[in-house]
Amino acid sequence: MRHRVAHRKLGRVTEHRISLLRNQATALLRHEHLTTTVPRAKELRPFVERLITIAKRGVSQSTGQADGAPNGKALHARRLVMQDLQDREVVAKLFETLAPRFAERPGGYTRLLRIGFRKGDSAEVAQVELVGSEFNPRAKAEADAKTEGAKPKGRTVGGRLRAAAERLRGAKKPEGADEAKPAKRGKKSQPKKSEPEENE
Fold first, then answer.
1. φ and ψ at 114, to 5 degrees?
2. Where are the beta strands (DSSP E) in 118-182?
3. Contact present, 99 and 35 (Cβ < 8 Å)
4. What is the pTM of this model?
């Protein structure tokens, strides 16, 4: 029986599993969203939320001082977070940006969105994101579409096919068609052999 057995093993030994969670937590805090499988996402949520809570504790302790010098509890909180996050830039972002953002929120800092199934092995995939940083996966594509709408479009395959069909019908010639086209390579035009005339 599995009574009181917490956490998933994720098919890895302990060291590998902890390393996986640390790397995913670093990526989530750096980019504020992450796409992974649902079991990994469910294991990642409490791991990251614990780090954010420790950071909030450190920030609330350091803001209470008038001179702004870090006290022992803030330093201790930073060292506790540094045990799991090795990247100093991510730790700085956590303490300076993310922890103050969640100062009034009593837990529930992450959101898990199921986005479908992976093509290769049909594993269910989810996106984990921090609350308050709603990531729009189509934002870059929409921005590119707006910039491309301003500049003229190149000729597409369909446009070239329509132009070729119109040329064959003789309707009109496209611009730049006045130039002489070079002869195609391949078969050289040979003079026709004339048949010998029969004498009577």
1. -80, 130
2. 124-130
3. no
4. 0.65
Strands annotated E in 46-122: 110-117
Which whole number is the average pLDDT over 96-125?
A: 92
Question: Is a pLDDT exceeding 80 seen at residue 152?
Answer: no
- C-alpha 188/C-alpha 195 separation (Å) is 21
The pair of structure tokens assigned to 174 is 């496209």
Residue 123 CB contacts under 8 Å (≥ 6 apart), including other chains: 37, 38, 117
Share of the chain above pLDDT 90, in %: 54
Q: Distance of CA 82 to CAs 12, 26, 198, 200, Å?
A: 23, 11, 104, 110
Question: In this structure, are strands 124-130 and 33-37 parallel, antiparallel, or unpaired?
Answer: antiparallel
Q: How many CB atoms lie within 10 A of CB 112?
A: 14
CA distances (Å), origin 8, targets 107, 108, 117, 130, 139? 22, 20, 20, 22, 34
pLDDT of residue 194: 60
Location of structure tokens 């446009």: 159
Q: What is the pLDDT of residues 51-78, one digit of tens each?
A: 999 999 888 766 655 555 557 788 999 9
**106: CB partners within 8 A, 6+ apart:** none
